[in-house]
């Protein structure tokens, strides 16, 4: 869970990742960090990646 583009927001600057698989945890954490930094999924909104 993360809030897109709110990494500097005092209330919503958080991501939560919970899983039992180490690789999946790291992959998901990186994915959610991207959302915190304002990135969207490919094909959504103004995403160009």
TrEMBL record:
Gene3D superfamilies xrefs: Collagenase (Catalytic Domain) (3.40.390.10)
GO MF terms held by the record: metal ion binding
InterPro entries the record matches: MetalloPept_cat_dom_sf, Peptidase_M12B
Residues annotated as binding Zn(2+): 31, 35, 41
Highest rank taxon of the organism: Eukaryota
Catalytic residues of the enzyme: 32
Keyword Cell inner membrane: no
Domain Peptidase M12B: 1-49
Keywords, sorted A to Z: Metal-binding, Zinc
Pfam family for this entry, one: Reprolysin_3
Record-given protein name: Peptidase M12B domain-containing protein
Organism: Sinanodonta woodiana
